[in-house]
Amino acid sequence: MSSAPPQGPGSGHLQPDPPLEPTLDKTNKMAEVTLDGEQSGRDVLKPHGTTDDTHDRPRTHSLDSPPLLLKMPTEIMLEVLSYLSPNDLARASQTCRCLAHYAYDDRLWADLVNDNLPVPIKDPGLFPSFRRLYSAHSPFWFIPKYKIWFADNEHTGNLILARYDNRRGVIEAYRIIADRGRPMLRLWAHNPEVMIQTFDPQVLLWLDDPVLFLKDHDPKSQVCTSEAWAEERPMPMHSDSNLVHSTLNLCRQVPAGVSHPDELWPPVTIPTQSRVARRRRHQQSFPGPSSKIVDFAFAIRRWPMAAFVSVALHDEIFVTYATLDPGLYTATEDKPYQGIWVGDYNAHGCEFILFIQQGTSLTAIKLTGDPNVPRGELTFKADEIGPDSTIRIAREEPFEGARVVPCLGHVAGLGFHDDTFISSQLFLISKDEVAHYWQDLGHISYFRRVDIDGVLRT
């Protein structure tokens, strides 16, 4: 069976799914058409306001025979239904028993689940069916689908990777961290006054403390116990034992009047078609129809519980997360340096950077930051990295063979005060390793490409 091509983040709004489990009950109250075309119960569902004189109207087919649609072979019917969205497939199941039979075919729901996973699963795991699995985590399947999410925490930000664990039947997300190990000092023959620290980071997920966790409380049941559609869903986090409550919130597109860059996420430095308004403390959700809910952002709300009673107090905190269009971090033959990298920022530790290559220009944007240059800001930019911009080819260790191009590095005081760009140089060592020479600071920092899929497999 084929299915409609998946949309990228921000390409459309996330439409709320109708409740999936109750459709059988609704179907029982409708015309009971059996699979062989026989009818029982009421013959026809009449539109509101009609009378019993419908026999005087011309009919295109006999009431004693099923519609032509229901006469199609099973393979063709399933092929047709495979092009429906989960919403429309659930609605189709509410029309009659025959379509309910086809719409409940687990092959359709297996495709819908696997459309959201980087590696398809072959069975529904703890759940009795793929349909039951899909309804358990609807409408949050977009979270493992886009997998990379970065947060608006002040200054530092946060980078998390999301995945679905079929063994436990949960959607989870963990913070991605980097351990740079113990650096060694190296002498640079080109300029002995500049000391170089080696950088060989180990990038991994911090599995001890999930940032996001969605779980069905009774996956063996035939009926979904989770809310069929809720803009805010509780998360059974380990932190609950510490009297902190967490919920996952859907986000709407930017409402009218929100235009200041500081109020938007993703930040304006990252190219995207759509943005959401950052959630703040003590701030209620923006009113609006559910059709405005998006699939490229979500928010996590946390607040303390007093005496085991969940009460939102003044300590309520919202953190907004957004994803990245894969076209921004996927390296290509024309854009070999594009991707997500980890950089050595000395006393600030390791930070994760998005390299965006447009033609022969390269821009580095912080996905995580520090009190000087925070997340969402540029850390350096090179307007021209092509062969014509080459300053020299390094002949000395440890940069032998690297092409050196001009660059501008971004520096600032604490609190991002008095920020400015200073002259620097970029050493293009390989497609997976780059060094940034801060000439005025007498310092060289390394950047290494991050294998996101490799980290997710840990």
From TrEMBL:
Domain F-box intervals: 66-112
Q: Which residues form the signal peptide?
A: none
Q: Which UniProt keywords apply?
A: Ubl conjugation pathway
Q: Where is this region: Disordered?
A: 1-66
Chain intervals with Basic and acidic residues compositional bias: 39-62
Q: Give the highest taxon in the source lineage.
A: Eukaryota
Classification via InterPro entries: F-box-like_dom_sf, F-box_dom, FBXO31/39
- Pathway(s): Protein modification; protein ubiquitination
Matching Pfam families: Cyclin_D1_bind (PF12014), F-box-like (PF12937)
Looking up PROSITE patterns in the UniProt record yields: FBOX
PANTHER family attached to this UniProt entry:
F-BOX FAMILY PROTEIN, F-BOX ONLY PROTEIN 31
The name under which this protein is listed is: F-box domain-containing protein
